[in-house]
Amino acid sequence: MPPFRLAHISDPHLPPPAGSLGLRDLVSKRALSAIAWRRKGGQHDKAVLDALVADIGARAPDHIAITGDLTNFSTAQEVAAAQAWLGGLGPLGHVTVSPGNHDALVGRAEARRFAPWGPWLTDGEDSAFPHVRVRGHVAIINLCSAVPTAPWLATGRLGEGQLARLASLLPDLAASGLFRVVMLHHPPIPGVVSARKALEDGEALRKILAAHGADLVLHGHAHEAALGALPGPTGLAPVLGVPSASARHGGRHPPARWHEIEIGEDPEDRQVWVTVRGLSALTGAFEALGRYRLTAA
């Protein structure tokens, strides 16, 4: 059988709809985020994002994993606009979203705040993360590290309950012979981002993965391409991050990329290949920048 093909994108930072910010937002963290958005000077370009989505559509992957930051200020208008954008990516059940810190900029730390994105979070109705979506021989394990934080911070946290549920899920999924893809917004490896942007309970997550394993971990948040690994009970689990899906050339970070990940079916000889597709400075189109094989745990 052909491999399962998973597209990984992150941090699209959709443009805020007109009127997203009101007077009350001027005395909240949203005001600081709005200043930062203006200072970036158009580093995020909707035309770039549209070209990336078109490139994914032309490749027709089996599933799309988005590791957060669809919004900028987490306003109701932005959440609704992101919901409409998600609906244009393909059939329900074809896309999975792990919320990012910008998607939970202010307010309470509760899973139900993401209810409008429910069809892109889980196949069921339970609001509690993690969510597991089985597609063929692949189990997509959707974590949520998005929590409101104090001004100047962009840290993430999974919490004891979510971590405990993850620890109980991983062994059963392994016993079923499924390829386990863990996705979250914040990088699980120390040093990928600064302390003010880090995953607060990253060490607890790493201990769970060391004990129970995962076959692949996907993240965003850094706006950089990242390739690393975390130890598991039988070997190393590859960890991949991608730049922002809307980043144009000439900004602080690399231009937009996405990963096409091909996951073979045979658990005895699992072939996992990654094709990097990025925005060309010469043509302004997306093209293959490279291809490499991952050695899964």
Q: What's the domain count?
A: 1
> What Rg do the Cα atoms give?
18 Å
Helical content stands at 10-25%
What is the top-level CATH class?
Answer: Alpha Beta
CATH superfamily: Metallo-dependent phosphatases
Mean pLDDT figure: 91
Explained architecture:
This protein is of the alpha/beta class. It has one domain: Metallo-dependent phosphatases (Purple Acid Phosphatase, chain A, domain 2). Helix content is 22%, strand content 23%. The protein is built from five helices and twelve strands. The strands form two sheets. A six-stranded mixed β-sheet has the order 3-2-1-10-11-12. Helix 5 links the parallel strand 6 and strand 7. Helix 4 packs parallel to helix 5. The protein is globular and about 50 Å long. The model has no long low-confidence stretch (mean pLDDT 91).
Chain-wise SSE layout:
Elements: E1 4-9, H1 29-39, H2 46-59, E2 63-66, H3 76-87, E3 95-97, E4 131-135, E5 138-142, H4 160-175, E6 179-183, H5 202-212, E7 216-219, E8 226-231, E9 236-241, E10 257-263, E11 272-279, E12 286-294
Helix pairs in contact: 4-5
Entry keywords:
single chain; six-stranded mixed beta sheet; globular; about 300 residues; Purple Acid Phosphatase, chain A, domain 2; 12 strands; about 20% helix; alpha/beta
Give a brief outline of the structure:
This protein has helices spanning 29-39, 46-59, 76-87, 160-175, 202-212; strands at 4-9, 63-66, 95-97, 131-135, 138-142, 179-183, 216-219, 226-231, 236-241, 257-263, 272-279, 286-294.
